[in-house]
Recover the amino acids of this structure.
């Protein structure tokens, strides 16, 4: 874990520290893009903001103690006025009490757990919460995929369990039977778990509320055991590179929920996609666009109302109410009762996400 | 408090309101301080303890339950793995349900509230418990798939991890215990300190609050008690009470007002005392003077009734009688003025009041060369008020005007008018003197304010306005157009139902008979110690046809009545041995029929006003000097009424001719 200063803000040499926006992410390309764009905001304030990146922990080390400790360290950053992060639902939730105690705005770009809405007034989320996403997954399984028996594989944390509850409610409403519930932690023996599950009551759909790597493995093994079995996955599986890597040929059997699919429906989305591709040679993913929007939203708030924490918080609260929604790459952004709830289902076809038109 | 205590100027002090406000604020501060103290010590400490203990308690409880649940499940899975037989579906479902239920993770938010030294241990344990859940599912799956050897090998790993988790959990508990004990010890110490502080605070309150109450008592209760005692003494008649004014606060001001009030009452009582003494003096003089005046009137009128006088003599006798009656009227006016009636009247004819008052002071008009002008409204309705008291008001106004006119050169004019607007009756007194100085006009009706210097008490106008206001009226002053002062006495018109007019005396009807001897057949007893008076009266009544017996006092009269009857008794009040009232009482007891026929003729009627002696009707009371015609009418009326009464009750004891 390391912290890097990506934007040398124009420190005026006085004892007062420059306003700092901390970004907890490992997505360096979108942060670079955001830094360039922050400079193009109102010159006085935009150039004064320093963006400090706290590199995400290595995979598998995102334990709640690490996230809480990291948050306690970050709130001590001189001049800190807001923070983008943390990336996962559980990590964001572990850190949220620290930010609320310190009264620092926390904007979680990809976390979906509805529990974040109860932690305190200083925590905001960009993505629709698990109630919304879970309901969409349940409805898609019943209405579009016409599933009758669903086996549920989920991460036994706030992300997986939140989605599972919402999805099961919607499935049952639509007369779909949940034939198995299998909690899956990292390193689980998916072959045994899948074989025993499929042997008990063969499902016609597996709903995977696991990260992309595990979802890819589930697709591959399930394809071997029960050819033609379809996989529907939550937003944690939108990392195409891992999905394709683990699923192999079975990727085409996978449907994934996402909050944005490049290039999106807006001009901003198209430009963002082109810029990202130009820089990295790859297509951006939903998480990239959400992190970029989160940074730009907070920088825009600071340039509009200054860097006092309370003012930033009030600015975010006002979006969609007394202020118009912020127009981001992923679409209009607002919070609270005005929060957008756009969940897109895409099918993986030839290694790429292809939106499914079903509603 | 002493009567002789000198009135000292109070020292400046905080007002009572400020003191009470400070006292209440002090109490509030006292109550708030302990609350704030407890909030900042015990509550804060308890909250800290709660913050530390609550997440620890939650996580220890949650992890222990989950580990226990998984441990129980491993017993079943081991048994099944060792048995090496296919697992029944129901058993497998129970195992999966337990592994699923216990294999979740604890709330992520609770880790942020943990003391940092426990975060890693418990987070690792939490992850491991979740892993155990999944591993048990794997074991269950292997059993279902019939891969028993593999299941047993996997189970060894599960057991190993479970032991590790249990060990770590035990160690965490052990590590947490001192912290919890220390937190508890600190809370206990804080609580002990708080209890000690509260005890000290309450003890301080037990001392300070009574002290505050004592101070309040000294500042409020004690002075109020002094005032209360002073008022009680005033109520008992002691007008010489004077309270010492020690402070300049509200109570001090109250005491000062109390002293002013007693001074007013004292001066008023002295004024009334002087009036009483003057009244007694005048009453004595009146009796002594009215008797010779009555003799003069009686002799002159008796002489006139004979008829053998020349015209010149007749004129002289008429003048003698008239002047004597005038002197008597003046005396009766003086008596009325200096003595307040015990039975004050409720309606007054302001014209009569004005005339009577003017009569009293008329002699000064000539002395001071004052011309009296004015217009008395002949259609003036009756006003509310006691005529005698209103006469006192008017005499006061006239005296003031005469005094004021003494300081200006002639012509000196005094004007008295009466008028009405249909709702009130007005009596106006104005003069062409110098008027009331501007600086005095606003407070001329206050006690002890006078324009006469040492010659005035400063109470006249004050009392006059009080008399007017007692009946709903008022007395005001303005500058007169002639340059002097103009006083207006306004009184409400008397309502007949509310203020019944004094009943008129019955008009006597002449006794039928010879015009020269209308009293023919009437037997009268004349009782008076003054022979000079008794003789001409008797002579007159005899000449008018009456049979007259004479007696020098009450005893002689009672003796004369032994064995004889009379139609009427005319008696003086003041007599030696037995006075008129004693005689009346004796007759009431022995001869009530004769008591009803008694007519009092006296130079001083004040004794009749004394308590318990008011039952004698007014038409049987005559004030000397009285016109003999009036006496004759009263005698005729009483004799007729007594005769009618006796006839209605019983046959007369003694037949009359």
């Amino acid at each position: 874990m390391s912290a890097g200063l990506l934007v040398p803000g124009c420190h005026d040499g006085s004892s007062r520290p420059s306003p700092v926006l901390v970004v907890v992410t490992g997505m360096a390309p979108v942060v670079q893009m955001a830094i360039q764009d922050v400079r193009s905001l109102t010159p006085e304030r935009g150039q004064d903001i320093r963006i400090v990146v706290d590199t995400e922990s290595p995979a598998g080390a995102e334990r709640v103690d690490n996230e809480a400790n990291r948050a306690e360290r970050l709130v001590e950053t001189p001049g800190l006025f807001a923070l983008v992060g943390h990336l996962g639902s559980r990590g964001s939730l572990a850190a949220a009490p620290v930010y609320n105690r310190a009264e620092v705005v926390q904007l979680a770009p990809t976390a979906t757990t509805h529990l974040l809405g109860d932690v305190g007034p200083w925590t905001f989320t960009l993505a629709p919460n698990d109630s919304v996403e879970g309901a969409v997954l349940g409805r898609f399984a019943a209405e579009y995929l016409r599933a009758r028996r669903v086996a549920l594989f989920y991460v036994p944390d706030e992300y997986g369990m939140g989605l599972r509850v919402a999805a099961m409610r919607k499935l049952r409403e639509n007369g779909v039977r949940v034939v198995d519930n299998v909690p899956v932690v990292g390193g689980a023996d998916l072959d045994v778990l899948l074989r025993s599950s499929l042997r008990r009551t063969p499902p016609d759909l597996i709903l995977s509320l696991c990260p992309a790597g595990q979802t890819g493995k589930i697709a591959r093994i399930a394809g071997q055991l029960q050819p033609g079995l379809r996989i529907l996955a939550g937003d944690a599986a939108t990392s195409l590179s891992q999905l394709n890597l683990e699923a192999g040929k079975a990727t085409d059997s996978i449907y994934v929920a996402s909050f944005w699919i490049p290039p999106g429906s807006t001009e901003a989305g198209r430009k963002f996609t082109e810029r990202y591709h130009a820089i990295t040679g790859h297509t951006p993913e939903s998480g990239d666009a959400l992190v970029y929007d989160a940074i730009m939203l907070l920088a825009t708030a600071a340039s509009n109302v200054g860097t006092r924490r309370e003012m930033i918080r009030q600015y975010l609260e006002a979006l969609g109410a007394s202020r118009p929604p912020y127009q981001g790459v992923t679409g209009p952004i607002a919070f609270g009762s005005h929060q957008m709830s756009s969940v897109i289902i895409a099918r993986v076809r030839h290694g790429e996400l292809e939106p499914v038109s079903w509603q | 408090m002493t009567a002789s205590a000198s009135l000292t100027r109070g020292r400046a002090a905080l007002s009572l309101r400020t003191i009470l406000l400070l006292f209440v604020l002090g109490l509030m501060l006292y109550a708030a301080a302990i609350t704030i103290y407890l909030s900042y010590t015990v509550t804060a400490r308890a909250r800290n303890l709660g913050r530390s203990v609550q997440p620890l308690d939650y996580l220890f409880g949650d992890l222990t339950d989950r580990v226990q649940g998984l441990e129980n499940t491993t017993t079943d899975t081991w048994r099944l793995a060792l048995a090496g037989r296919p697992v029944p579906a129901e058993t497998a479902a129970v195992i999966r349900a337990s592994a699923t239920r216990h294999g979740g993770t604890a709330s992520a938010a609770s880790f942020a509230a943990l003391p940092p030294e426990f975060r890693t241990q418990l987070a690792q344990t939490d992850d491991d418990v979740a892993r155990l859940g999944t591993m048990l599912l794997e074991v269950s799956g292997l059993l279902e798939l019939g891969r028993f050897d593999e299941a047993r090998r996997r189970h060894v790993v599960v057991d190993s991890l479970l032991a590790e988790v249990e060990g770590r959990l035990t160690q965490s508990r052990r590590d947490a215990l001192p912290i919890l004990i220390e937190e508890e010890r600190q809370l206990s110490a804080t609580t002990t300190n708080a209890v000690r502080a509260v005890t000290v605070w309450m003890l301080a309150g037990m001392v300070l609050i009574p002290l505050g109450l004592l101070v309040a008592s000294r500042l409020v209760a004690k002075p109020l008690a002094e005032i209360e005692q002073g008022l009680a003494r005033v109520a008992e008649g002691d007008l010489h009470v004077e309270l010492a004014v020690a402070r300049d606060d509200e109570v001090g001001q109250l005491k000062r007002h109390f002293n002013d009030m007693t001074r007013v009452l004292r001066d008023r009582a002295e004024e009334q005392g002087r009036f009483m003494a003057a009244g007694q003096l005048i009453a004595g003089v009146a009796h002594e003077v009215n008797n010779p005046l009555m003799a003069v009137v009686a002799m002159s009128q008796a002489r006139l009734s004979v008829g053998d006088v020349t015209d010149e003599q007749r004129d002289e006798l008429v003048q003698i009688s008239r002047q004597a009656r005038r002197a008597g009227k003046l005396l009766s006016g003086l008596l009325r003025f200096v003595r307040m009636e015990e039975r004050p009247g409720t309606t007054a004819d302001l014209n009569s009041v004005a005339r009577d008052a003017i009569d009293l002071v008329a002699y000064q008009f000539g002395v001071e060369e004052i011309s009296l002008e004015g217009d008395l409204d002949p259609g003036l309705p009756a006003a509310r008020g006691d005529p005698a008291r209103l006469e006192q008001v008017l005499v006061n106004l006239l005296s003031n005007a005469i005094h004021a006119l003494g300081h200006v050169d002639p012509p000196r004019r005094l004007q008295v008018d009466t008028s009405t607007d249909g709702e009130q009756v007005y009596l106006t007194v104005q003069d062409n003197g110098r008027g009331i100085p501007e600086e005095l006009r606003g407070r001329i009706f206050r006690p002890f304010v006078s324009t006469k210097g040492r010659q005035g008490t400063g109470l006249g106008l004050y009392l006059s306005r009080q008399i007017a206001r007692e009946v709903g009226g008022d007395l005001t002053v303005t500058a007169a157009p002639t340059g002097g002062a103009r006083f207006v006495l306004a009184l409400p018109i008397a309502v007949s139902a509310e203020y019944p007019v004094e009943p008129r005396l019955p008009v006597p009807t002449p006794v039928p008979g010879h015009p020269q001897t209308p009293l023919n057949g009437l037997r009268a007893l004349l009782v008076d110690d003054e022979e000079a008076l008794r003789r001409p009266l008797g002579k007159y009544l005899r000449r008018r046809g009456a049979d007259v017996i004479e007696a020098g006092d009450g005893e002689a009269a009672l003796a004369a009545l032994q064995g004889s009857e009379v139609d009427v008794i005319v008696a003086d009040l003041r007599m030696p041995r037995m006075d008129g009232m004693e005689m009346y009482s004796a007759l009431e007891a022995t001869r009530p029929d004769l008591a009803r026929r008694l007519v009092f003729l006296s130079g001083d009627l004040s004794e009749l006003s004394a308590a318990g002696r008011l039952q004698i009707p007014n038409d049987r009371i005559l004030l000397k000097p009285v016109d003999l015609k009036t006496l004759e009418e009263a005698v005729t009326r009483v004799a007729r009424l007594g005769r009618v009464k006796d006839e209605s009750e019983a046959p007369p004891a003694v037949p009359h001719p």
Chain A touches chain B through 38 residues (CB under 8 Å). Confidence is low (pLDDT under 50) at residues 1-13 of chain A. The radius of gyration of chain A is 21 Å. The first helix of chain A runs from residue 28 to 39.
